[in-house]
Amino acid sequence: MPVVRRFGRVAPLLGLPVVLAGCVTDGPRSMLHPIGEIAQQQMDLFMWTFWLSIAVLVLVVGVLIFAIIRFRKQPTGDKDAIPNQVHGSVPLEIAWTIIPVVIVILVAVPTVRAIFDTEVRVTPQEEDLIVKVTGYQWWWRMEYPELGVVTANELHMPVGSRLILDLDSADVLHSFWVPKLAGKRDMIPNQDNQLWFTANEPGIYYGHCAELCLGAHAYMRFRVIVEEQEDFDAWVASFQQAGQQAASETQPVQDSQLVEQGRALFAQKGCIGCHTVEGYAQGYSTGNPDYPNLTNFGLRVTVGAGVLENTPENLAKWIRDPQAVKPGNYMPTLWSEDDPNAEEEAAAIAAFLLTLGNEGQEPQAQADARGGSNGDR
Ligand code: CUA
Question: Maximum distance among all alpha carbons in the chain?
Answer without folding.
Answer: 105
